[in-house]
Amino acid sequence: MTKLMTPDELEAALRRIGAERYHNLHPFHRKLHGGGCTIDQVRAWALNRYCYQAIIPQKDAALMARCEDRELRREWLHRITDHDGLDGNEGGIERWLVLTDGLGFDRDYVVGRTGALPATRFATEAYLHWVTEKSLLEAVASSLTELFAPKLHEERISGMLEHYDFIDERVVAYFRKRLDQAPRDAAFALDYVRRNARTIEQQQASLRALTFKTEVLWAQLDALWLAYVEDMPAPGAWRPGEGMREVDAAA
Ligand SMILES: O=C(O)c1cc(C(=O)O)c2c(n1)C(=O)C(=O)c1cc(C(=O)O)[nH]c1-2
């Protein structure tokens, strides 16, 4: 029978979900970080992943819109500016576009998302809907995949710099920045869930939220694999050569 957990037991159960389900385990990531991707597979990944980047500040705004606790809003606010930028800070979305620039994409094509796989759009939109519709606790818990992100980002930075001559420091800047941002955000969210999941139902809902989020991430990589490793892109999805800046397309 499910029993009430102590905060430490709850944290251990959350971390187990990460150990078993986080997308660092996905074969596409192993291929990407190990140097096994072609430049077009890296392009497909960066183009699709833009959809995730774009939805993050929207889901953070949705979370804040339903939040009556001023302290929580104050703490959550910087997540939006981390991505959208403010004043002198260019923001994570801009840094992501530096990555897609480095891969030769036309910015309007990336931002327009018309070349993204349908499954990528559905998965990222599902995250926004989840945060909009579920309890605040579940919305916060769904961000906890970030507990596991820094290790993955480190692997990505070193693996991609080592294996691909088209990747340099400028284009991995997005991930370097997340190495500072993600641990701070994840520590806050973890503490929030530890303190606020006080009933069996709340604890189980928090675990389900984190599981759901690992599925949002996993489904995106399944779709990439099918489309660009197995060569089955959906009709209308990006094909190599499309959406490039003219100078790169001609090169
Ligand atoms: O590259 C990755 O594997 C990865 C994963 C995740 C994640 O685990 O959700 C995030 C990010 N990156 C990321 O860059 C990011 O800004 C971010 C925000 C969030 C969130 O749920 O609020 N997750 C993630």
From TrEMBL:
Gene3D superfamilies: Heme oxygenase-like. It is an enzyme of class 1 (oxidoreductase). GO terms for molecular function: pyrroloquinoline-quinone synthase activity. One of its GO terms (biological process) is pyrroloquinoline quinone biosynthetic process. It catalyses: 6-(2-amino-2-carboxyethyl)-7,8-dioxo-1,2,3,4,7,8-hexahydroquinoline-2,4-dicarboxylate + 3 O2 = pyrroloquinoline quinone + 2 H2O2 + 2 H2O + H(+). Signal peptide: none annotated. Keywords: Oxidoreductase, PQQ biosynthesis. NCBIfam families: PQQ_syn_pqqC. Ring cyclization and eight-electron oxidation of 3a-(2-amino-2-carboxyethyl)-4,5-dioxo-4,5,6,7,8,9-hexahydroquinoline-7,9-dicarboxylic-acid to PQQ. This is Pyrroloquinoline-quinone synthase.
